[in-house]
Amino acid sequence: MSTGAARAGLNQAPAGQTATTIDRSQFDNRPSFSVGDVLRDSPGISIKQGNGPRDFGISIRGSNARNGFAIRNLVIFDDGFPVTQPDGLSRSDLIDPHAYSAIDVIRGPSSALYGNYATGGALNFRTRPGGTIDGVEYGVDGGSYGYLNNYLAAGKKVGNFEGSLFASDTRGDGYIGNSWFNTQTVNFLGTLKATPDDRFTVKIINNDLSARLPLRQSLNQFYTNPFQQGCTTGMGTAGCPTVSLFNNGFNGGKDTETATQAGLGRNDRRTIVGGRWEHDFDNTMTWRNQFVFDDRNISQPTGSTSAIGDFPSYNYMSDLTKRGEILGLESTAFFGAFYNTLTASSDTRNVMPGGNATLGRLSSNLYSETTNFGVRAREELKLTSALTAVAGIGWETTLLKGVNTAYAYAGPSGITTTTLTTADRQFQNAAPELALLYNLNNEWLLRGRVATGYGTPQVSNLFVLPTGLSGNNTQLQVQKNLGYDLGFDWTPNNTLKLSATGFYEFFRNEIVSQATPIAGVSYTFNAPRSEHRGIELAADWKFYPGWRFMAAYTYLDEVYTEYVENITNGAVFSFNRAGNKIPGISPNELTARIGYDEFAGPLTGLGGFVEIQWKDFFYMDNANLLKAPGYELVNANVHYKTDLLSDTFRSLNLFLEVRNVFDRTYVASANNITNTVTGAGLQNSASVLTNTTGSIYAGSPRTFVAGMKVAFK
Question: pTM score > 0.90 for this model?
């Protein structure tokens, strides 16, 4: 392996990390609408529906299960370019799985290598190289609820240049009322080998999203009307969540409206432009410099208010990788430095009645600055032919600055008063890690790892109270975790691979979010101590010619070990949550698939599979009084791929998939809800909590999707 290739691999699955790679063969013959369709093939991964059609919360070992929207507590890359902004926020809207050849899932605390926010791990999405495409491919997927995705992949390797371009146009009516969507994605990767020692790479991603957005339901509303049908008016139809809007847009009387009446939705754009220069000093040492500009532009009337803002960020990193020997032992050493920053001014405006997300007056403005800078080092040392040791450390300073201006309006004329809350926080964090890899023989690889992670709050977290209103929450601390992994990979032959990992992680000041009484607004707090432990299993078994069985299973047991929650109802009442399960964490998740592909004779290329997805129940509140129900889904697929004897066409791929074959109604997302108390200080029971709104989105009913893909020479 060349030095440059070794360095690129650090974003994929570096030695010593607990990692899984999902390759294209696992999703190339099926409709892959979102990351949820492909990432479930890795153990440790959980998926929940977010605020939009392809906005999914991705969790590694439960890392993001408590977050209300988007992705936190892990770092995401696209071909090694970071697509997690400096404030730690990632979104999956810009990810169309058709563009990718593989996804690397790195599980467990990984801040030594990936820095701030990598408490859960990291993901690296790898687009298809131009030489692999070697021409043009056009595909179309279409199916239930008006779903249609037209996509194009083009690529070539010509001389010293290799480039690939992916573009897609995706739209649909949505299976929940007020959930139509229209999104376009472009993803380009180009690499030029300018000299034998210099390589230049350019990455461009752009995603435009226009979508309507339903309101989240209570559990009772979900049981009554899971797909929010008939919710065009605020009265008369059971199970329809509503939102209260100021009639004049700033104070006084309110009107109660459904999401359809109010016209709630999202209109967002994400643009990422990156460049990388790699220089080989010799055949043992490579210098890499990388710069990324990442701009997130949002207009999100998702509830009683609309978030509006532009979030431009800059990310620069420089590092050296050296391969050689230390005391006669084979060595790979790495040292790098980095700097990233995001400065933004964002508004929160009231939404008025009347439809079309009509905006009223300003509710608050947040000026924020987030800056991270630091260094990281790593050493991989082959102690013997069978034993490899890995040691790494990262050090980072994070600066958070913010000024939140809350606006209040008095009287019919709306006389304005303002309240300022400021924050100026500085955090310094270090993250060491150690790992041992022991190749017992050609069949067995034994793995052991101890590692640390850290994640600072977002500036916006510092200014939201449990009521959902603006206020002072600036006491939030950094969450830190220390994790131990022990596992093995067993590959007795080329038809079977089994992998098992047990982990135990200790958290300090875990950052947890929960829904507030204001729709679309979450409150963030620290749980002083908690413990996460679990088991991850993966199997890939080609047990008979043409047959393949794959499975990914995760067991999670995550509990608070120190946390006293204060709940106010006139007076303040305290409740000890030690020993309680952390809400949002499903203890058991399984994806298993058995399939057959004909490899000889006139039916070569014809195949199919049956897949089951099982997600266990989980608690929705800190007191563990209310459970979101679990579910089992069955998907069935038939596909056909054949080479074409033509001067123009290379191959044809056809497929048909039925998802949720038995039409199970299930919870695709349940945000944590707040416990409440009576005036006497008694916690309200589950029967009361089932009416708490702002939590649940239903999953898709039975859907049919057919697709076709043609490759041109």
Answer: yes
Tokens of 676: 């409440």
CA–chain centroid gap for 81, Å, is 16
Between the alpha carbon of residue 248 and those of residues 309, 328, 351, 412, 577, the distances in Å are 23, 77, 10, 9, 42
What residues contact residue 72 under an 8 Å CB cut-off, 6+ apart? 63, 64, 88, 89, 90, 117, 455, 458, 511
Q: What is residue 6's predicted lDDT score, i.e. its pLDDT?
A: 35
| Beta strand residue intervals within 283-386, DSSP E | 285-301, 305-326, 329-351, 359-382
Radius of gyration of the chain (CA): 25
List, for residues 199-252, the tens digit of each pLDDT value.
999 999 999 999 999 999 999 999 999 999 999 876 668 999 999 999 999 999
> Which amino acid does the sequence have at 518?
I
Asked if residues 147 and 169 have their Cβ atoms less than 8 Å apart, the reply is no
Cβ(432)–Cβ(449) below 8 Å? no
Residue 470's SS3 state is strand
CA 516 to chain centre: 22
Average pLDDT over residues 593-603: 94
Interior angle at CA 603, CA 602 and CA 605, nearest 5: 125
Least Cα distance to 164 among 195, 135, 198 occurs for: 135
Asked if residues 486 and 500 have their Cβ atoms less than 8 Å apart, the reply is no
Beta strands in 109-160 (DSSP E): 121-127, 135-143, 147-158
Q: Would you give the end-to-end CA distance of the chain in angstroms?
A: 30
Point out which residues pair with 319 in neighbouring strands: 288, 336
**Which position has the higher pLDDT, 189 or 468?**
189
Residue that wins the pLDDT comparison between 2 and 435? 435
The helix (H) or strand (E) run that includes residue 687 is helix 686-689
